[in-house]
Amino acid sequence: MISDIQLIINLYKETKLKRPSILIIFFILILAIVGFGGYKLLYVSNFETKKTVYVYIRQERNFEDLCKQLVDSAGCIDIGGFKWGAKLLKYPDNMKTGRYAVEPGMDNITLLNVLRRGQQTATRITFNNIRLKSELVERLSEQLMINEEDILSLINNPDYCDSLGFTIETIPVLFIPNTYEIYWNIVANKLLQRMYHEYNTFWTDSRREKAQAINLTPIEIAILASIVEEETAVADEYPVVAGLYLNRLKRDIPLQADPTVKFAVGDFSLQRVLYKYLEIESPYNTYKYTGLPPGPIRIPSIRGIDGVLNYMQHNYLYMCAKDDFSGRHNFAVTLAEHNRNAERYRAELNRRRIW
């Protein structure tokens, strides 16, 4: 565009035309070229990408970082033209955080309007297989703009948890593992409100009726499901294990669940729960205390929760891992039968030198 204008200026100097009409035509030509150049900068495709890509504007609202993303990820052809348009629309001073889509063939004005209006695209977040709060907030912060400390300050706040119907021990069951569409720049309080909505959506009348029939609250069902999932990695055993623990709860027999002891010790990697661990003083030690622990020992999955709600009715009171290390269990009605199963398992542990 600049070379075209210079060409006309040189032409004007060479011809030395002085008449007003020629002067007017001269400036009209300049305006036309400038207008056409501006049109090209704003309305002609400036992003060559084979598929939709996303750029992220963080709390710092760094315009140069955005430009770098457009070049590196969005195939920007002329970043100078984008910057010119952004300054024309005073965008750098009015950046909004978020996750924004850049479509193939997009022009500068379309993208700038999306950015100026904050028309971000929701992102899909997923979380599952999580034990601790620290793991949860790390997983969420990896997928959202949100800060880990912002979430922790809420889920470790007794008053805030109480406002949602939970305690700081039970609040993890608020998070139902699934995939959700959420705006990338959501704040901590809004995120928890969204999870609260999803929690109530998950706990349908049908699920609540099943929990009531078991004589447990939804929170207690989730706590039990967390123990069931830690006890067996084989999903088709969930209803069997759940039925076993429910039998113990009904008879006021301690659950004696090894995973709760591992949680109390703070070491899930223990391959062998020794007698010294069974004496640890903790409300999560189900060898010392009857009933359910005060909170979940992991965030239970939907399948785990449904495994408890649809538990198998039987007379089992004992379980022991099979000595073939298949991940499955031998179940027993009597202590004598259980002791035989346990002895075979201990012998295999010794043979494999697992101490």
Features:
mainly alpha, 4 domains, 6 strands, 50% helix
Count of all domains? 4
Structural class: mainly alpha
Please tell me what the overall shape is.
elongated
Order of helices and strands: HHEHHEHEHHHEHHHHHHEEH
Spatial extent as radius of gyration: 32 Å
Largest sheet: 2 strands, antiparallel
Major β-sheet strand ordering: 1-2
What is the count of DSSP helices, taking H or I runs of 4+ residues? 15
Instruction: Tell me the strand percentage band.
Output: 5-15%
Model regions low in confidence, pLDDT < 50 over at least 5 residues = 26-39
Mean pLDDT: 89
Distance between the termini: 78 Å
Total number of beta strands: 6
Helix content: 40-55%
Description:
With 355 residues, the chain is mainly alpha-helical. The protein has four domains: 2-43; 53-117, no CATH class; 129-190, no CATH class; 205-314, no CATH class. The protein is 50% helix and 7% strand. It contains 15 helices and six strands. A two-stranded antiparallel sheet has the order 1-2. Strand 5 (318-321) and strand 6 (329-332) form a beta hairpin. Helix 11 packs across helix 12 and helix 11 (218-231) packs across helix 14 (302-309). The radius of gyration is 32 Å and the shape is elongated. The chain starts with a helix and ends with a helix. 27% of the residues are buried. Mean pLDDT is 89; it is low at 26-39.
